[in-house]
Here is the input.
Amino acid sequence: MPESDKSDQDWKRDLSPNQYKVLREHATEYPGTSPLNDEKRHGVYRCAGCGQPLYASDTKYESGSGWPSFWEPLPGAVETSTDHKLAYPRTEVHCAACKGHLGHVFDDGPQPTGKRYCMNGVAMSFEPAEKTD
Here is the structure.
């Protein structure tokens, strides 16, 4: 079944409680809690909900935010929408395949894009390069 056709019960079965809260309920994990913050190997970051490749490791950088940050997603990997949950609008990032909430994108990142894709680590998995060949 396509990921977009999954029922809420299917998502609860397939995801950990923390993954479900972030990916399906748009929660935010606490900063500094993701093991992916310290991941330095070459590879691909994937959606924890559906396995969609999201970011190449060579676009990851240390933003100081406490969340894994990237300056560019893989082509067609993510979509955005406007999030009005705070007093000011933010740009929410979700997986293009399963629509799971990943984090937000800001305009304070490094060149060449000037973007900071600030992602919840629990919403992603990491696949080292030796397994992606």
User: Anything to note?
Assistant: The first helix runs from residue 8 to 14.
